[in-house]
């Protein structure tokens, strides 16, 4: 029987995820190009391609990073996670304290290669890897409060508290993501509910304090955001309103790529509000398609971990994909004004400098795990084909 | 291994939850974008696009020798928007250093004052606080680097508003004639008259407001392209203007006069080379408060006698040699007595001397006898000299001349004799000058002009050629008769104090009694107007000039003493500066050493030295040279200025140095005046285009 020669594909791992990622990258470049027109005009003296070319460069290098990451053996991420978490804590502490000097505390610059990145991007990934490691090791007595719950909560709490003063929304989203991971990891539900209850009480108290007193740092900004969402006062809700106008402009079918008019009025149309921008240009249908791409991504991960070789691999892949998809949905919820304005980028789509690379590495880890899941699947598939 | 069942069901719950979340987002998007679409579309701000005017750059006004007389420079108003949220983070921390920086740049307030003020406005959340008006570009550049401000508009709250201001680099110099153009104010002077050229065309561009309140153009093209204004080259010569203005100022101060003016005109062309107007202000200083030269129409007095005699000669009713008795300096016409200013008169005197000595009695008798039977004939002749009509100059505000007809209601029996000596009629200084200029120009009357060329980007667009009002206001015979009389005034007459051995002057003094205000001739308001009008060099007139000084109040009012010195000083300086009008026969004595001159252009030196008869030794052919005095000759040496090297300008005058350096692509900053002593970029170093070079003059 003659078989068709399939061209050799160098990239391995789940092909669907690869395709989804490529499609998202293409959408990303198109959307950023169109959305940065006015930004480029006012900041780059009319060079409208400026940001697109920069973004394209980051996306392409990101794809390379993804490729190299996925070639690794997933087991080394257990060890990397263990190391990374101990790097992340001091980095977060440095940026937090360094913030007092130049007011740009979310960022840190790597001395040798002179690339700056948000330490929270690094810490998030480190924490998820470390959690996956801990969860897989504690599976035998996972329901125990002292043996499992407390050791798991320490790194989560520490990371979130260190991120919190400078970036509330990132800390909150990371915290919720971690709780969901703990739930997946069979942590005692009683303990989790207890924590959530304490958290809600604490949060309410915090809000009351924040709204009534002037606190330093970014608390003022969060306060304003919460107040705006609550009161709906029109001047400060400018972003949300412009986003809604963009969504209305788009209608069902959209105005077509490059035809947005709201990009000139919608702040952050290339980042925080890119979902609204995409609805304007690609319509409700385009937005639905985009959402399906994220759902497919998550679905493929859930499907593949059924055959995962180890609990660590399962928790790693689920944790990372949850983090990305959850952040994506939060971003979309903000764009349609379901959530208050948080300042979260849309992973894989938004223009956002080096955080694109962390997203790429994250996807690379998922793909890496998928390689090992597929291996055991292969036997079945081959059998089916015969 | 495969994943345990109790992990799988948790994953399914998670997946369903995520899907529900996604569904909620889509539902919300659908509700905004499809169900409530019309509502949100109606929220779009209609006023975010508008046609905005784009100001055109106003053209410059140059002097005939290429200096800027008026130019537009950008200036800025600095405001602070204290409502910018980011200020919360930095204001308290950095207000101290900002106040310090401000007090250093603008020292009119102390650091503490700035700090107090800033803090107060910050507390009040002033969104449009005016920090400083009208600052220059250099200060703005420094200011942008200050703490808080360096964060820009959206973080530092720095609001910069650009305006454009008209600057006259020479300040007072001819400022009234240069004038101004401002919306809502009556335009005056060259700026007003030539506004259509200078203003350019205001463009229009479709602008759209984008996030952050910034306006950006909707498309690449202008709806209406703004067109830069054209440049005006005026006829004024800065050097002469400076001399005229200073001489006038000195004389006004000396005699504590009310006002005065000087006009210098080129005989052949009618181009006005200098025009200075000064009036006394409340604090006894003088400044250009009114264009007396073109606007102030007054009784001319004795300067009008020229017109009277020319009328007599033209009509063949008198000869210069006619003898008249001055009757002891008093002659009665009707019931009024005409007297000579010279006590006791001049005895019997011919008309020629009557003019030279400015005898009222002799000239009024001559005119009265000739025309009393038909006074209108005299008036008609005067009209042939174009003295009754405005010159029609481009500048606004020309005073109307008044020469009344014999049929006029105010005409009386004494009108004719009094008109003949310059009363009962009115003329502006410029009109009198134009008349004298015509005589100097052998009867050819030129229209006075203030602008000789329109330029655009250095290219000539339009040239204003000399305009002839009348090619002959009288016969050559009459000119031949009056010219010696005019020279006689300076040689042996009323203005003999102006006589000098280098060149001859022809002219006439005029000391008129004028009424100030509305109270007529009587009482305290009676005052004098001293004038001198003439031309030089008398043999081959090149320039004509009039000086009028009103109300000298220190006891001296004779024209030759009040107005004469201004004329003399202007004539001396102009004569000294213009080699082309100097008599070739009057070479300086070669017994003296050769003159020391600044370094400069070789061709200039060769012209100069050959005219002066100084021997030159030139070793090499070169454009820019350095001079060296060796005994009675001058050695011209190469300055060694290579093509792409910073030229050596030490020893040069300012004009040559600036010309050379700017042509090399350098920006020149000048300190001091005189001759260049030092240059900040050494000669022979490589030229860095647009870099600044400072030259220190002594």
Textual characterization of the structure:
The complex is a heterodimer of chains A (386) and B (698). Chain A is built from 13 helices and 2 strands. Chain A has 386 residues and is mostly helical. Chain A has a two-stranded antiparallel sheet with strand order 1-2. Chain A is globular and about 60 Å long. In chain A, 48% of the residues are buried. Mean pLDDT of chain A is 82; it is low at 1-9, 100-105, 232-236 and 375-386. In chain B, the strands form 9 sheets. In chain B, strands 2, 3, 4, 5, 8, 19 and 20 form a 7-stranded mixed sheet that branches. A 6-stranded antiparallel sheet of chain B has the order 11-10-9-24-23-22, with helices on both faces. In chain B, α3 packs antiparallel against α4 (111-124) and α12 packs parallel to α14 (360-371). Chain B is elongated, with a radius of gyration of 36 Å. Chains A and B meet through α2, α7, α9, α10 and α11 of A and α1, α2, α3 and β6 of B.
Question: How is this structure best summarized?
Answer:
The complex is a heterodimer of chains A (386) and B (698). Chain A has 386 residues and is mainly α.
CATH topology of the largest domain in chain B: Beta-lactamase
Low-confidence stretches of chain A: 1-9, 100-105, 232-236, 375-386
> Main sheet of chain A, how many strands, which sense, barrel?
2 strands, antiparallel
In round numbers, the mean pLDDT of chain B is 84
Kindly report the spatial arrangement of strands forming the biggest sheet of chain A: 1-2
Structural class of chain A: mainly alpha
The total of helices of chain B stands at 22
- Amino-to-carboxy terminus distance of chain A: 12 Å
Give the helix proportion of chain A (percent range).
Answer: 55-70%
Regions of chain B with pLDDT < 50 over 5+ consecutive residues? 518-523, 584-591
DSSP strand content of chain B: 15-25%
User: Could you say which overall geometry of chain A the principal axes of the C-alpha atoms support?
Assistant: globular
As a percent range, the share of helical residues of chain B equals 25-40%
**Rounded Rg of chain B:** 36 Å
Strand content of chain A: under 5%
- What would you call the shape of chain B? elongated
Distance between the termini of chain B: 96 Å
């Amino acid at each position: 029987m003659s078989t068709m020669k399939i061209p050799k594909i160098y990239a391995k791992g789940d092909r669907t995820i690869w395709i989804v990622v490529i499609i998202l990258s293409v959408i990303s470049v198109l959307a950023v190009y169109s959305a940065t027109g006015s930004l480029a005009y006012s900041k780059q003296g009319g060079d409208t391609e400026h940001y697109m070319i920069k973004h394209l460069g980051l996306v392409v290098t990101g794809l390379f990073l993804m490729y190299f990451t996925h070639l690794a053996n997933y087991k080394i991420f257990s060890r990397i996670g263990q190391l990374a978490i101990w790097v992340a804590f001091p980095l977060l502490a440095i940026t937090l304290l360094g913030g007092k000097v130049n007011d740009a505390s979310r960022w840190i610059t790597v001395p040798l290669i002179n690339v700056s990145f948000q330490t929270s991007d690094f810490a998030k990934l480190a924490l998820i890897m470390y959690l996956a490691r801990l969860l897989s090791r504690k599976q035998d007595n996972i329901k125990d409060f002292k043996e499992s719950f407390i050791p798991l909560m320490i790194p989560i709490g520490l990371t979130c508290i260190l991120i919190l003063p400078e970036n509330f929304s990132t800390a909150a989203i990371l915290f919720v993501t971690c709780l969901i991971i703990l739930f997946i990891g069979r942590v005692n539900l009683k303990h989790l509910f207890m924590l959530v209850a304490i958290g809600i009480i604490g949060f309410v108290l915090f809000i009351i304090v924040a709204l009534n007193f002037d606190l330093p740092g970014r608390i003022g900004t969060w306060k304003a955001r919460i107040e705006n969402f609550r009161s709906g006062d029109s001047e400060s809700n400018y972003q949300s309103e412009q986003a809604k106008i963009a969504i209305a402009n788009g209608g069902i079918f959209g105005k077509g790529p490059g035809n947005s008019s709201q990009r000139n009025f919608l702040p952050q149309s290339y980042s925080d509000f890119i979902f609204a921008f995409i609805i304007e240009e690609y319509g409700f249908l385009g937005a639905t398609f985009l959402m399906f791409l994220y759902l497919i991504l998550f679905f493929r991960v859930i499907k593949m971990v059924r055959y995962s070789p180890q609990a660590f691999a399962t928790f790693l892949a689920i944790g990372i994909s949850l983090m990305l998809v959850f952040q994506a949905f939060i971003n979309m919820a903000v764009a349609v004004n379901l959530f208050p304005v948080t300042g979260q980028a849309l992973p894989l789509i938004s223009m956002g400098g080096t955080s694109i690379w962390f997203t790429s590495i994250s996807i690379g880890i998922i793909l890496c795990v998928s390689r090992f899941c597929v291996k055991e699947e292969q036997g079945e598939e081959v059998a089916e084909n015969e | 291994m495969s994943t345990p069942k109790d992990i799988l069901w948790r994953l399914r719950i998670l997946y369903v939850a995520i899907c529900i979340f996604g569904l909620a987002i889509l539902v919300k998007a659908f509700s905004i974008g499809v169900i409530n679409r019309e509502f949100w579309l109606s929220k779009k701000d209609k006023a975010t696009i508008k046609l905005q005017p784009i100001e055109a750059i106003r053209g410059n006004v140059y002097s005939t020798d290429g200096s800027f007389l008026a130019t537009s420079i950008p200036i800025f108003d600095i405001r602070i928007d204290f409502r910018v949220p980011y200020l919360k983070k930095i204001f308290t921390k950095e207000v101290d250093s900002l106040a310090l920086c401000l007090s250093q740049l603008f020292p009119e307030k102390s650091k503490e004052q700035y700090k107090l003020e800033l803090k107060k406005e910050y507390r009040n959340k002033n969104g449009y606080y005016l920090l400083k008006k009208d600052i220059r570009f250099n200060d703005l550049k420094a200011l942008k680097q200050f703490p808080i401000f360096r964060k820009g508009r959206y973080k530092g709250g720095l609001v910069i508003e650009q305006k454009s201001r008209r600057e006259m680099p020479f300040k007072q110099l001819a400022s009234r004639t240069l004038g101004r153009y401002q919306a809502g104010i009556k335009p005056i002077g060259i700026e007003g008259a030539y506004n259509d050229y200078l203003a350019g065309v205001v463009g229009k561009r479709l602008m759209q407001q984008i996030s952050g309140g910034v306006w950006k153009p909707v498309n690449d093209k202008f709806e209406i392209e703004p067109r830069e204004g054209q440049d005006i080259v005026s006829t004024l010569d800065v050097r002469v203007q400076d001399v005229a203005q200073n001489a006038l100022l000195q004389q006004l101060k000396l005699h504590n006069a009310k006002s005065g003016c000087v006009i210098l005109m080129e005989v052949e062309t009618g181009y006005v080379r200098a025009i200075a107007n000064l009036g006394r202000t409340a604090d006894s200083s003088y400044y250009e408060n009114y264009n007396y030269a073109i606007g102030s129409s007054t009784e001319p007095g004795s300067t009008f006698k020229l017109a009277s005699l020319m009328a007599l000669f033209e009509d063949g009713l008198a000869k210069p040699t006619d003898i008249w008795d001055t009757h002891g300096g008093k002659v009665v016409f009707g019931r009024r007595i005409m007297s000579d200013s010279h006590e006791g008169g001049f005895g019997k005197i011919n008309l020629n001397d009557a003019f030279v000595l400015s005898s009222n009695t002799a000239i009024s008798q001559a005119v009265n006898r000739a025309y009393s039977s038909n006074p209108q004939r005299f008036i008609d002749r005067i009209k042939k000299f174009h003295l009754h009509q405005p010159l029609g100059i481009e500048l606004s505000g020309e005073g109307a001349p008044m020469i009344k007809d014999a049929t006029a209601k105010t005409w009386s029996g004494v009108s004719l004799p009094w008109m003949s000596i310059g009363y009962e009629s009115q003329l502006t200084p410029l009109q009198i000058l134009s008349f004298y200029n015509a005589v100097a120009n052998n009867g050819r009357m030129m229209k006075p002009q203030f602008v000789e060329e329109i330029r655009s980007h250095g290219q000539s667009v339009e040239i204003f050629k000399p305009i002839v009002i009348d090619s002959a206001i009288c016969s050559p015979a009459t000119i031949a008769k009056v010219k010696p009389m005019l020279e006689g005034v300076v040689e042996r007459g009323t203005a003999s104090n102006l006589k000098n051995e280098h060149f001859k002057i022809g002219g006439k003094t005029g000391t008129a009694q004028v009424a100030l205000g509305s109270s007529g001739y009587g009482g305290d308001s009676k005052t004098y107007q001293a004038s001198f009008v003439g031309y030089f060099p008398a043999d081959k007139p090149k320039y004509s000039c009039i000086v009028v000084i009103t109300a000298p109040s220190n006891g001296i009012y004779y024209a030759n003493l009040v107005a004469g010195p201004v004329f003399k000083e202007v004539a001396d300086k102009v004569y000294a500066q213009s080699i082309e009008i100097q008599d070739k026969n009057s070479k300086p004595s070669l017994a003296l050493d050769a003159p020391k001159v600044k370094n400069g252009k070789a061709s200039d030196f060769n012209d100069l030295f050959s005219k002066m008869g100084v021997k030159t030794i030139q070793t090499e052919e070169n454009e820019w040279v350095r001079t060296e005095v060796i005994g009675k000759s001058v050695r011209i040496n190469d300055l060694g200025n290579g093509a792409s090297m910073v030229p050596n300008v030490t020893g040069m005058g300012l004009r040559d140095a600036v010309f050379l350096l700017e042509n090399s692509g350098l920006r020149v900053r000048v300190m001091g005046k005189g001759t260049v002593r030092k240059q900040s970029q050494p000669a022979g170093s490589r030229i860095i285009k647009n870099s600044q070079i400072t030259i220190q003059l002594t």
